[in-house]
Write a structure and sequence with these properties.
By secondary structure, this protein is mostly beta strands. It contains two helices and 31 strands. The strands form seven sheets. Strands 25, 26, 27, 28, 29, 30 and 31 form a seven-stranded antiparallel sheet that branches. It has a four-stranded antiparallel sheet with strand order 3-2-1-24, with no helix packed on it. Strands 4-5-6-7 form a four-stranded antiparallel sheet, with no helix packed on it. It is globular.
């Protein structure tokens, strides 16, 4: 039986059982799907490297080549599940509930790891977790769960935790809720096993609550952690399903499918545990965690077609839950490569305007770096904006010219 047949067979029961709360009106309006006008910024991830041999995670970030690792949280109780805001300025994440042995709350911080702020205060027998920013950067979806895995719902709040309200209640407990970049669909995982948490499926529905469909649900398999591509046309996810003998070990692998569940494709094919995929802002790459088991994983990067590129971290314990920062970029005419070495320098140099070649753009960038990063270089005014360890730089010609050079400046380790 094909994957498509399996998925279609699983759709009907859950569609019939859908429950919607009265508050499930349209979510806040937001811009259309993200374009390519963004830099691939830092990768945030959760790690046990600050508590080797323990169980308390902290949030770290690193440059997209694995250099410049920075610790962003120092909470002794534990932090995990980072999610970058669409403008690259903040991170929402899950914290262990203060003063409790179990359960979670949602917090946020700046891109540089300052301004830590708790956003939710959930009653003693419930938890708030798995935050996901809306495309407008002014709201956050999150999961609220009860004392058992059989209770859960999807909530919405403002970017500072204001006006928390129930949005969706479904018969199967939801996890990892997120709104598509074009704001049309809500995506989530559902726990489908009658007891425990051994069987999951991936579902989506319209933002107004209708149109529920099962996107990927192989009976008995752990299909989970879905992530929208920046253009809202594809979804990456993890699954331990063995479809057509492609995963005989029944370990976790990374998959990708169309936004409507079409053409599900297994990307990783190995005897390792591969989980938690996250798209690069330009939609060309996927960061994910990979290792011998879920307690011993590192962050790796592959192409969106599944070609493994490199390992970014090397830690004996767990580096997990990567999420890729989108740094806003101006509209430009061409990409001109990098002016960098050993993890330091200018990345993804872009240029715009008539009469400006890529060679000239790279020469301007090189002179700006060599001159100590001044505010003006060879007739171009310079603006620099920090994004927590990485900086977005623009060199703009004066006199009404459209000539522009834009790039990321990476300080290295």
């Amino acid at each position: 039986m094909s994957v498509t047949t399996i998925v279609r067979a699983a759709r009907v029961p859950l569609v019939r059982g859908l429950l919607l709360c009265a508050a499930a009106a349209l979510l806040p309006a937001a811009p259309a799907a993200a374009s390519a006008d963004a830099f691939n910024g830092a990768i945030a991830f959760a790690s046990l490297r600050s508590d080797p041999g323990g169980e308390h995670f902290d949030i770290f970030s690193m440059n997209p080549d694995g250099t410049g690792v920075r610790r962003l949280t120092t909470n002794p109780a534990g932090d995990r599940q980072p999610d970058w805001s669409p403008n690259g300025a903040a991170i929402a994440y899950t914290i262990d509930k203060p003063g409790a042995t179990k359960n979670f709350e949602v917090a946020r911080m700046t891109a540089s790891g300052t301004g830590h702020r708790r956003l939710t205060t959930t009653v003693a027998d419930q938890a708030s977790s798995q935050p996901s920013w809306l495309p407008d950067a002014n709201h956050i979806l999150f999961r609220r769960s009860g004392p058992t895995s059989r209770v859960g719902s999807i909530w919405l709040m403002g970017a500072l935790g204001e006006r928390p309200q129930l949005r969706f209640t479904t018969p199967a407990p939801p996890l990892y809720p997120s709104l598509s970049p074009d704001t049309g669909r809500v995506l989530y995982t559902a726990i489908l096993s009658p007891t425990g948490d051994t069987d999951r499926g991936i579902f989506s529905q319209n933002a107004d609550g209708g149109g529920l469909i099962a996107l990927f649900d192989v009976p008995g398999a752990y299909d989970s952690a879905p992530a929208w591509s920046p253009d809202a046309t594809r979804i990456a996810f993890e699954s331990d399903a063995d479809v057509g003998g492609a995963n005989p070990e029944r370990d976790m692998e990374v998959w990708v499918m169309g936004a409507d569940g079409s053409n599900p494709t297994q990307l990783t094919r190995n005897a390792l545990h591969d989980e938690g995929p996250s798209w690069s802002p330009d939609g060309r790459l996927l960061a994910y965690a990979s290792g011998p088991d879920d307690a011993h994983v590192d962050i790796r990067v592959m192409t969106a077609a599944g070609r493994d590129l490199r390992r970014l971290t090397s830690f004996p314990g767990a580096d997990e839950s990567p999420d890729w920062q989108a740094i806003p970029a101006p509209r430009t005419d061409a990409r001109c490569g990098n002016v960098a070495s050993s993890g330091r320098g200018a990345y993804d140099v872009r240029r715009a305007g008539r009469g400006l070649t890529c060679r000239q753009a790279r020469t301007l960038v090189r002179r700006w770096v060599q001159a100590g990063r001044p505010r003006r270089v060879r007739g171009y005014d310079v603006t620099v904006r920090d994004y927590g360890g990485m900086a977005a730089v623009q060199l703009r010609a004066g006199g009404g010219s459209r000539r522009l050079v834009a790039f990321l400046y990476q300080r290295g380790s």
